Description:
Elements: H1 3-15, H2 19-29, H3 33-39, H4 50-58, E1 66-70, H5 82-86, E2 90-94, H6 101-107, E3 112-114, E4 117-118, E5 123-130, H7 140-148, E6 153-162, H8 164-172, E7 179-182, H9 188-192, E8 204-208, H10 210-215, H11 225-231, E9 235-241, E10 244-249
Parallel strand pairs: 1-2, 1-7, 2-3, 4-6, 7-8
Antiparallel strand pairs: 5-6, 8-10, 9-10
Amino acid sequence: MNQDALAFATQKSTCGFSKASWFQRVRDVLPAATALLHVSKSISFSQYGEDLLLGVSLCPRRACGFYVDVGAYHPWRGSNTYKLYLRGWHGLTVEPNPEAAPLFRRWRPRDRHVTLGVAGQRSALEYHEFRDKKLNTFSSSLAARHVAVGHPLLSKRLIDCRPLQDVIDQNCRGTRIDLLSIDCEGLDYEVLQTVDFERNRPVALLIEDYDEFSLRRKANSGASLIGQHLEKRDYQLIGQGFWSMLYVDSRARQEGRATAFDADNWEFM
């Protein structure tokens, strides 16, 4: 090692521990408080930044919105709606994993939480549980794929399931739904089919759609089953967050139901 390199190495190894260095770091951070608070607006709790997509594409207002979060998973970890909750929104959270219920009661007391699965009819379905709880699913084929790539299946249990419309009617009948979020690990289309859009028309709908994600990479390919289902009901795609697609009711502004959003700033894809 030459003398210059030795001098640099010695300086590098000692300067990080000097009192002057720590003082300098504190002095640098204090003026950055304003910048840090500004950047905090971009903090995301969702798995792939879906809550940032909601903020940018929908322009939600404060303290005036109601959501239904199906497959809510955890009060804040991987949550599509926790950022809205912090803005003053509230709603209904639906999650089949019974271990999540006390966490929702603790972290989100303004919400109503129910421990249920969602299915086409009232039934008890087999729930596959993994170490990574985000992988839990009612889909036996999806569970098999998880196992095939090395995720050990920990257990199975029967969980009560209801059509989503029944869950909505029982827990928030007559309430305008500003956002419906569906993340049901491979059964999202089946869950969507249980919503009666004549009785409930969410202003916005965020739904995980692996097929639409794949089709959008192919030129001149048609919409997925979920996309077709929503387009027939006058929903329009407004944004995409990796696997998740964000739709809005094309009638909502005209009918005066988009009051929880700054809808004048909506931009459609």
